[in-house]
Design goal:
Layout lengths: L2 H19 L3 H13 L10 H14 L21
């Protein structure tokens, strides 16, 4: 490996990490899963299948809130991907 690769690679990894994790990944996954698996007819409310459907819908819709960490601080990290 050349010195250039050793110096540039960690910075590129940091930038790509920030770019990836700046996207609403979990929110998008939740929407996709709800559309894919929770958009069809279910049946009667007292039905066991309806209760399972309802629980799955509640679970898929529950996305954790993001914290207050400034993701861009990763770019300044000394030991991140080094």
């Amino acid at each position: 490996m050349t010195v250039c690769v050793l110096l540039v690679s960690p910075q590129v990894c940091r930038e790509q990490f920030v770019a990836l994790h700046s996207q609403p990944i979990l929110q998008d996954l939740s929407k996709f899963m709800l559309q894919k698996y929770c958009s069809g007819p279910v049946g009667e409310r007292k039905n066991k299948k309806f209760l399972e459907y309802w629980k799955m819908m509640q679970l898929l819709a529950k996305v954790p809130e993001t914290g207050d960490f400034d993701l861009h601080r990763v770019k300044e990290s000394t030991y991140f991907f080094s």
